[in-house]
Here is the input.
Amino acid sequence: PAAEEHQPKLASSVKRMLGMDEAAIVVRGHDDLMVYRSKCCNPILGDDIIGYVTRGRGIAVHSKNCPNVENLLYEADRRIAVEWAASTQAEFPVRLRIITEDRPGMIAGISNIISDTGANIRSFESGGDDNTRARIEVALDVRDRKQLEHIIAAIKRIPGVFDIERVYNV
Here is the structure.
């Protein structure tokens, strides 16, 4: 029983992430740690994540499928368990690249889908790749991976959409 009293509590404090209104990531057993989402992979709520203790900048949180995570794992002692908080009102910036048929109404269709899901569009850029195709880049705020997947699936169903991908390094 006495040994149990010295164990770190599993419900440790949740630290605010840089640029977020609500605390969104839990670092178990640690207090007073600065936590931030890495720009290289820009993890959003619902992504599998891993924490990495940086030198002087706090805990960098990466998506487990981030190409940089493989390099970070060489120093296994700097990994730290992190997880998404049970509830958060945070929104996460995401960028999508969409290749479409170049036709009237395509931009309206895409923006309507995003708007209908309740996501906020931060920026929307389009241009023709050639005479028949357009390249659209849209930056938006999403609540979580589920909302993002819903948006992507709905955009894929628009006639004339050839490809859509999430762009990292937002």
Summary: Residues 145-156 form the longest helix (12 residues). Residues 18 and 131 are 42 Å apart (CA to CA). The first strand starts at residue 14 and ends at 15.
